[in-house]
Amino acid sequence: MNRRTFLKTLGLGAAALATPGCLGLSHSNGIKKPRNIVFILADDLGWGDVSCYGATPGLTPFLDAYAKHAVRFTDAHAPASTCTPTRYAIFTGQYAWRKPGTGIAPGDSALLIDTQIPTLPKLMKASGMVTGAIGKWHLGMGPGPGKTNWNKPISPSANDIGFDYTFLMAATADRTPCVYVENGQVVGLDPNDPIEVNYKHNYPGEPDGKRDRASLKMDWDFGHNNAIVNDIGRIGYMKGGHNARWRDEDMADIFVEKAISFIEAHQNESFFLYLGTNDIHVPRVPHPRFVGSTPFGPRGDVTRQFDDSVRRIIEKLQALGLEQDTLVVITSDNGPMVNDGYKDRAEELLGSHKPAGDWRGHKYLPYEGGHRIPFFVAWPGVIPGGQTNSALISLVDLGATFAAMRSVSLPDNALPDSFDQSATFLNPSAPSSRQNLICQDYQLNLRAGDWKYIVPRPAGNTPSTKNNPLNGQLYNLRQDPSEKNNLVKQEPERAKAMYATLLQAIQAGRTRP
Hints:
Elements: H1 3-10, H2 13-17, E1 36-42, H3 61-66, E2 71-73, E3 76-77, H4 83-92, H5 120-126, E4 130-136, E5 165-169, E6 180-182, E7 185-186, E8 196-198, E9 228-229, E10 232-233, E11 237-239, H6 251-265, E12 271-276, H7 297-319, E13 326-332, H8 368-371, E14 375-378, E15 387-389, E16 393-394, H9 398-405, H10 422-426, E17 436-439, E18 445-448, E19 451-454, E20 473-476, H11 492-508
Parallel strand pairs: 1-12, 1-13, 2-15, 3-16, 4-5, 4-12
Antiparallel strand pairs: 2-14, 5-6, 6-7, 8-11, 9-10, 13-14, 17-18, 18-19, 19-20
Helix pairs in contact: 5-9, 6-7
């Protein structure tokens, strides 16, 4: 497929064809265009887990040092307080609550992203970049439960939404299937030991997390008691594929090594790399060289492991002379969770450490601790480092921002909730391009200026005019950053207005101008 045909398929049309080419060219306004983009997404890394955001000193030594060369955003948010909807929003530029079925996906979920729509990786390809996705996916692959054949090429997959190269785990480390999938095929699969996966019942003769609990090297606290892989209980069942099953202790290294190989292979081209690490998600099983590296047990140790993974990627860019050609974004998919189903002593060893900092809540919750995240942007020689930026941004903005920085014009129907934050990235003192944002968990919440409104239960993620907005929650984050004082009764008109704004965004089907 030639570029013109590809762009028409993507829906970019003549506007994109008229944009400047890649590789060293500049925007029409004279601002340099990043030749490469590296996007590193941690899993469950909280605001307070990063030392330079006020956490326990020394927990993330590399990121602390790297912050001197980057801009550290202080009002950045995941579009959801859980992983699947955040990742869906990142790659589609659309809030996940607009599409039913984009909650936390099981390991055998069908691909959740429509292969026909414009996506972030398709836009990067349109700009002339080679695209790669490595690590955690959790957006489904194949046709879905009972239909996906894990023993043959899996389609549709991440390769069908714009990635040239993929090396992924299907869902999360605590869900089956516990194998790596490279370009749609399970890695290391023995055809004489075929894989089967289901989330309803175990297979005869297979170990079981409840029955065989005494054999586990990491006990479960709740859930995580179905299949046993690497002596750890999981969610869901599987049989077969024994040669292909991962060893949790090696996962971080394997993802980093694959990322480095991708960078080396395309160092003379323009590339976009998404690296989704498993750290800090459960089960937390660090490589032996990180065991005991912090006083916080496995959770602290995998935080240090993530920090070291980032170090290795940045040092590879430096060694290849690519750092000044590369925009780097480092962030997390949602807020932290301490006990998420395994007995890893995370709560017992927490001490004075506060994974969400002084923000209220954690992963799964609508409060700031669930979706306010650490967020670094670096581009040496172009973006002045060592600064902070208080602009309001969301990870759903990455698609429009990267497209703008690569001079790709968006068709009107593309990335409906993604705002171009390129000016904010390039200038630490520039204001945000958005006036408000919406975050999702089990209750939608709207942020506008200093104010935050959380919809009432049971409205959840589908509020309507039937719900009474005065049954919700209203906070002034400047005066009450811990969200302790619900002002909905003192500010009823503000609550009603914010609820109306939220309903309007739902009805409009988009928020991008």
